[in-house]
Amino acid sequence: MKAILFIGDGMADRPVAALGNRTPLEAARKPNMDEIARRGISGEMYTIAPGVPPGSDTAHLALLGYDPYEVYTGRGPFEAAGAGIDMRPGDIALRANYATVDDALVVKDRRAGRIQGTKPLTDAVGQIKLSGAQFIFRSTASHRAALVLRGTGLSYEVTDSDPHEIGKKVLQVKPLLRPSEDMELARAILAGGVRKYLGRRRGANKTTKLLNEFSRKSYEILKNHPLNRERVMKGLLPANYLLLRGVGIAPHLKPLREKFGITGACVAAAALVRGVCRMAGMTVIDVPGATGSVDTDLNAKREAVLQALKTNDLVVLHVKGFDEMSHDGNAPAKVQFIERVDAMLSSLIDAADFIALAIDHTTPVSVREHTGDPVPVAIAGPGVRADEVSVYSERAAAEGGLGRILGKELLPILVDLMGRSKKFGA
Amino acid sequence: MKAILFIGDGMADRPVAALGNRTPLEAARKPNMDEIARRGISGEMYTIAPGVPPGSDTAHLALLGYDPYEVYTGRGPFEAAGAGIDMRPGDIALRANYATVDDALVVKDRRAGRIQGTKPLTDAVGQIKLSGAQFIFRSTASHRAALVLRGTGLSYEVTDSDPHEIGKKVLQVKPLLRPSEDMELARAILAGGVRKYLGRRRGANKTTKLLNEFSRKSYEILKNHPLNRERVMKGLLPANYLLLRGVGIAPHLKPLREKFGITGACVAAAALVRGVCRMAGMTVIDVPGATGSVDTDLNAKREAVLQALKTNDLVVLHVKGFDEMSHDGNAPAKVQFIERVDAMLSSLIDAADFIALAIDHTTPVSVREHTGDPVPVAIAGPGVRADEVSVYSERAAAEGGLGRILGKELLPILVDLMGRSKKFGA
Question: Within 10 A of A255 (CB to CB), how many other CB atoms are there?
């Protein structure tokens, strides 16, 4: 049996005064989502844990059945995977921003004037070779890029070079491990042994040295690059420095195939979501016109889902625009987008045996950031113990038969309904 | 944004025949608590875990967001902190009872006739000095006192000297570690290494020796103390022995400031609750007239809350009398006290952005002890997804939008609503 898992990024909300104390989901006319709730079983879900605002990466790890507290060390690896780098467990990855610095290495613009078309710069930086690790460097969108270090004895326990502020000098990368200052670490040393600690410390020192050397060399390359000279002549900010941050180590995610015995595909524009799905061993589908914004081509995404269902057990359809409207604080636009997406869902309701509605996190238009409130989920399909809930919304779902679940529990429940779960015990 | 967290100690109950099979909360007229439920979101909470009766210390640890199974080793450290001793992580603390023993060290009265005014005795015992650790000894109320050992290489894995029964001889303190009899320990040894075990064993031996020496010396001092000679002449029981129990090690509780980024104050009379709050880094406010009983000055406590709100993000208001009425098995008095406290709440409902109602544990008047039933919670304030529940009671709360939560989840949820939570991931 097959299933579609729809993920409405930031679609859940809190009651909005301007909507008559309803949430956008409660205010929107969305017959298809409600039909799924009516046919199926609803519940409320803490993607990570009660009161904990999920990030996009941790939320999607949980929605694919992984425990984010076990596998997550930082955003870098997921950004890199989203950029199409084929990450291997143990790879160290960082996010890199093309930025503008002056001769004293003071940051003038953290995004180099939101530069577009960095490929020539990225190709030049990509030539950097240092002994001790392989460097993989790739642009994503606008000023963003991803840097991966592959080799032995590396560590993610190092600091950012990004000062995260304009007017500050770029930072030297440093090892994070300073036992005298860190109670938690002292305890880890006592628990795990000094030898293990020394190994971690060595890895952090090696990685620090490599990253600082990379920063120096890339600055040499970038400040003299013809494209930057041209930008300066045109009065544009040169992209002459790479600010590094979000370092993490690529976890070994047991692929969905192994973990649940299912094949999976993912229709998503957001790089981070694509990255998580790729690392989970899913096929990540490119859809022309999918933008990760409210102007995305919903019909093209729907067609991609229908196509992917032919060869996959599970197809994840991720739609991002809700979150954008919440970050803008625009409740009416969020309601409108919910209604547009709902219309698109009409031809997906019966396209697979199961259809599940989920949300990665609440993003209230009143807060404009992710919050830790639970989100509604609904699953419809054969054998589901349908409940009395007939509306897909935050408050209606709290009455549902699923009760309260955690994000990492959703996919096991769906896989079990699909008849693909494995018995524990005999 | 600011919040008041009201904790009604033992306020939850089971249906009482004499109240028409209603619980005291269901039977009481309490318009203010009901108004909070009506405005807000309700749920039922297992403070520790389903079916586990919480102690006062573990319950309040959970209500402040700590996992009691991680941080709790015994009641001693919280009693000591409640007695105003500034506990440091690693301190070993015990509860001490002034008791009466005969010349053969057989316990005649575990409370020395509920002696009052032990200060002269405590001052004398406080002079005891033993090499190997610093001793801090302080009286609390009536026959109660707290003993703290501060030093290196100490352990909480030792037995009580209190035989917990009249007519029995006082016990020698012994190391708890007897590998041949203890499967759990055997496993710990295998996991942690023999060396670690030997360290624990050494600590237990050292602590045992110190406590037995303290017991011997304090007995010498007490049996010859003028105050006791005077008591005997008056026909009163002498307080000539200190029964030790409830040994525990002071955990490192990450202060609320660090854990949640909020400042907190606590208005409570009960020593144990004050101790937990103090160890969580909260300001513990002294309120003249607050007794921890039904005769407490509720108006004075209310004023203290209003005052504390000026300089704190979170103010905990703990009221104890409900529990006392339950231990007495007095349902009508419990109903009456609920009504009195409810009246006091009228001026607190709108005093902060948020008001939350919680209970540390159920204490049924029929059982007269803490039980493991869940307790009702309600949170009102801006952005809350208000539900249909309009009564604050055990059974009404089970229908609420919060569903079922654990005690340690309540504060993260409240802090998230206050806009102070931190995102996990990016």
Answer: 15
